[in-house]
Fold these 2 entries.
Entry 1:
Amino acid sequence: MEKRELVIIGAGPAGLTSAIYGKRSGLDVLLLEKGIPGGQINVTDEIENWTGVIHASGAELADSFRKHAEHFKAEFRDVEVRSIDLSNGRKIVKTDSGDIEAEAVIIATGASFKKLGAPGEGEFTGRGVSYCAVCDGAFFEDQEIAVIGGGNTAVEEAVYLTQFASKVTIIHRRDSFRADRVAIERAMSNPRIDVIWNTVVEEIAGEDMVEKLVLKNVRTGDITELPVTGVFVFAGMDPNVSFMKGLVDSVGGGWIVTNERMETSVEGVFAAGDVRDKYLRQVITAAGDGATAAMAASAYISEQLHIQGLLLEPEHVTAFVFSSIDEPQARLASDIEKALAGTDARLVLLDGYRNKRIVEKLGIKELPALAEFKKGDLSRQQHIASLDEAVKFIS
Ligand SMILES: Cc1cc2nc3c(=O)[nH]c(=O)nc-3n(C[C@H](O)[C@H](O)[C@H](O)COP(=O)(O)OP(=O)(O)OC[C@H]3O[C@@H](n4cnc5c(N)ncnc54)[C@H](O)[C@@H]3O)c2cc1C
């Protein structure tokens, strides 16, 4: 089976940034992407909040991210990940064209548009119902259309759609938008935009193509009809985790829970970007997550090699685990090393400050400590306060 160091699933802003950081840390990086590298920004008309770039189209930004990852020689593969097998402590990523064993995996699969769930939505998708203004907006030249939703995406995309449509009606289930102030001001001052508040879509109807919406006012219960030829649905997002099937801890609908190092509940599996349970889902936060995940994955891989080579392979070895930023502990480490010089005892010095995960794994509660390994098994460990205690433990 193919074996790789770091496998990144998804080449959106999070995955591409992970690839850049992973390659720059010297890792062998494989990026798996089922669509076009760049992710959601490929369907974004303009980006005005990527620091240092006042204005760019989503496609331009996606292209520059991809080129940046290619510059550092990250390997791309055009495949869909179907599942991940984490049995027996291994990480096997199963794709539609073969399996890959990884030392660490970063899940950067982002999120997809939520469906409304209204009758007619499935039937008319591609025949008037759309989830992508950049992809489909131009089909509605001089027509009256509706946008469903009240967040930033809905409000911004409604403004974008006025380039084509003669009228855009935003239908929102609440009485105010959740978008930012600049976006709301732009929408409300646009003469082609109307808003229907406190209203949900009961049905999308028509013959071959969308012809009207049946609407319900959530306060009064009144049912009305709105004649439109297009409906753009921006009703929130769902995480792209169907291939994970509860492998890692997640909340509401599958958003992956991580700590600040982007570690999931499974060792060696990281998550970055929109797929995480997080406060703000944007390009800049996805990129930040991607950088953190790659650095944490790199530390994890070197820890694994460290443990394997230094502690698990020798017949008999003792590790002194200490904190390199604690002066007395660093001094004790060198005293122990000197005391054992010329004896048969095999000693490894391990910086527990930089390798916190190893400290956790060894069950060490307080540094410094000595841990003895026999044929790869931890036989005992003990907190050490002095050189005498250390010599007694080892002899
Ligand atoms: C219309 C719209 C407008 C937006 N406007 C802005 C904006 O102005 N500013 C801003 O900062 N953000 C904006 N965003 C949000 C921004 O695009 C996202 O926050 C960002 O793209 C998240 O990056 P990501 O890498 O986490 O995920 P994504 O961009 O979703 O990328 C995930 C990638 O993973 C791939 N993938 C998924 N499943 C699999 C699988 N099983 N196998 C292989 N590959 C897989 C997908 O194909 C995709 O390429 C907008 C989003 C949309 C939709």
Entry 2:
Amino acid sequence: MPRKIGVGIVGTGNIALLHTLGYKDCPEARIVALCDLNRGRAESFRAEAGLPASVEVYDSINKLYSNDKVDLVEILTPHASHAPLAVAAAEAGKHVSVQKPPAMTLSSYDHMVNAAHKAGVRFRVYENFRYHPPYARAFQLVRDGVIGRVEVVNVRMFGSVNCVGEYRGSKLRFPLHTLLWKIKESQNYKAPTLFDDGYHKHSIVQGFLGDVPGNEARVTAVRAWCRWQRLYKLVQLDSPSVIIYETAKANLYGTWNANVVKNLPMHSNYFGCDETLEITGSDGIIYAPGCTGNLFVGCECGGPGKPGVYWFSKEAGGHAPPFPAAGTWKSDTSMPTDWSQSFIDCTRHLASVLARDEWFDDRDPRPIHAEQGRQILKINIAIIRSLRNDGAKATLASIIDGPGVDDNEGVNVQDEAKDDSNVQDAIVQDDKNAG
Ligand SMILES: NC(=O)c1ccc[n+]([C@@H]2O[C@H](COP(=O)([O-])OP(=O)(O)OC[C@H]3O[C@@H](n4cnc5c(N)ncnc54)[C@H](O)[C@@H]3O)[C@@H](O)[C@H]2O)c1
């Protein structure tokens, strides 16, 4: 029996637990080493993730990269560090999987792809939303032509800080060390919604418009309308915001509408948000509620829809009076709909193709191929440019490397926010003030 693929995890912070779920009992791969600049964090992660003591823990990347048992490196560090870590991994002969957004600039993205190509190793961007089972099912419906050609993709995101459920014991959903880099210019363009989380949404919009066989529209320009919101006095949040994604054809486009309602009770074990996806095709509609969270769980009337996929199509063959020839709604809510499944499937898909010494099928819209990863990053960067020009149109053709605008607006964190407990106190205080 061939040896399992050995996986080295670089960065054992907030997302590491979800990211590594797929390696539990995985037939093709196993985690053999962890590395974090903060060694204590890696050690406690090993225990929390239930990994055996034989899993090596390092605080130096060189030690992990010189470990012969490591075949694949999963990079789960802040985006600005992805490129140097990925290039060094490729040069050490390791396959590379890098969390989204893969890089801050196109040149650093290209550097990673070229290094992997030169070293003859595999490179992929880890974007789990495309693996969310209802979205994977929606991809299949589009591929089967059930709604005709995709014309409009709308993502609706509701945010809240009033979550029911906990992620790793934190009400905040991230520890302060995570929050701090997410609101920095050099690490995230001060755009936790539009740049960091945005990569997922741009990937979904671009994915349905253009990455399913028969649908080849490319996003060519974006407009980012945003009204900054101060959250809990600490964070200047890039929301509410509405993004318009244009293609070369006027009737093919996407939107993403995100806002935070501070006290909206949100059923989510992960981050304080939930998404609904709507896809309009030339012959029908797909509607998929429930993603990161699950807004409708616990709703007495069942809410507008159990998580899953609903579609209306002329192919649906319904005869519902008074519109006998107009088709009917159908649904599939049988798949797992907890967001964690998207991570498990995304992790395992890579392990299974590597174990067979194969690569992803070009026609499969779920994995992000190198060219697609670059296109989504271009959208990401163009949105930052538009954001800084008060929503003006930013074409993807004009993006050469980064957003190209030096922005010094907004101080995101108050000086007193020195540790998690201060942030928690501030939240409690803010809640009291809000009555
Ligand atoms: N797929 C998703 O839904 C999702 C969700 C959250 C975060 N992410 C992505 O995962 C990445 C990490 O995010 P996070 O929230 O876990 O951040 P985090 O700050 O909680 O964790 C990052 C960890 O990396 C370590 N680190 C930083 N530089 C390092 C280096 N050079 N070598 C070794 N370790 C290093 C830090 O000490 C920290 O423990 C980001 O790119 C983020 O966008 C993805």
